[in-house]
Design goal:
The chain is an alpha/beta fold. The chain contains 10 helices and 10 strands. It binds adenosine-5'-triphosphate.
Length: 234
């Protein structure tokens, strides 16, 4: 059974259609990439799954249960974690407080989860008492991911982790995402950096102006002439 199942989802902002007739699935433990250029609809899709955007049509099921009418906090408690685009960490709180606040919101067990997060991102342990704004861009991205993990998610939604990071830091962050996947957490990764995302995911969906235009295993997509031309430099 799919952990996440989306059927014919449509979302709009006033007159603008951000998502049109989207159907996709993510299975337990699977890493799925959501690819597409700026404005393709990746964030809108993740925001719809998390409950920040209310779709006008279609259905989203998580773990066999419809998510319609379920609050953002309850989606979190049911096992959906989210690291949004732009990180949105709390700049005036310490690293530790940023992590604690998320587990409290999800009513998860703080100490054990924090140990797990520090195991994945040792740098965060050394910065435990630093304020959010004092961290580098890469460390802030790690904190945003760590904060999402503090809710103990079975499905982790990750939006544009490479945004604003150097190639070296992107490699470091995506290596850590691989470690999260290896522990059995399903990941839905939205990325404009297609080559990077294909190197992390098992499968991918390609979005263009709110519609899925390609889907498949990452190996096949890498060889797909349309994908090569549009995203991988020919
Ligand atoms: P990006 O990487 O730039 O975030 P994206 O693939 O995540 O791109 P979305 O942010 O989901 O794309 O945007 C999809 C479409 O919806 C775009 O046309 C965008 O301009 C529009 N859009 C997104 N958010 C809003 C909003 N709050 N109000 C109006 N239009 C919006």
């Amino acid at each position: 059974m799919a952990l996440l199942k989306i059927r014919q989802l449509t979302a709009r902002y006033g007159q603008i259609t951000a998502l049109e007739d989207i159907s996709l699935e993510v299975h337990a433990g699977e890493a799925v990439a959501l690819l597409g250029a700026n404005g393709a609809g990746k964030s809108s899709l993740l925001n719809s799954i998390m409950g920040f955007v209310r779709p006008v049509a279609g259905a989203i099921e998580f773990d066999g249960q419809p998510l319609v009418g379920v609050s953002i906090a309850d989606r979190c408690r049911r096992g959906i974690g989210y690291a949004p685009e732009g990180r949105r960490i709390f700049p005036g709180m310490t690293v530790k407080e940023n992590l604690e606040v998320a587990s409290r919101a999800a009513r998860a067990v703080t100490a054990a989860l924090m140990e797990e997060v520090f195991g994945i991102f040792p740098i965060l342990r050394t910065k435990e008492h630093s304020l959010g704004w004092q961290l580098s861009g890469g460390q802030q991205q790690m904190l945003a991911i760590g904060r999402a993990l503090m809710t103990g998610p079975r499905l982790f939604l990750l939006d544009e982790p490479s945004l604003g990071l150097s190639p070296i830091l992107t490699t470091e962050v995506l290596d850590r995402v691989r470690a999260i996947i290896a522990r059995g957490t399903a990941v839905l990764l939205a990325e404009q950096n297609v080559a990077r995302a294909l190197a992390v995911a098992n499968r991918a969906y390609v979005l263009q102006t709110g519609r899925i235009v390609e889907a498949g295993a990452t190996g096949a997509l890498r060889e797909n002439p349309r994908i090569r031309e549009a995203f991988l430099g020919g």
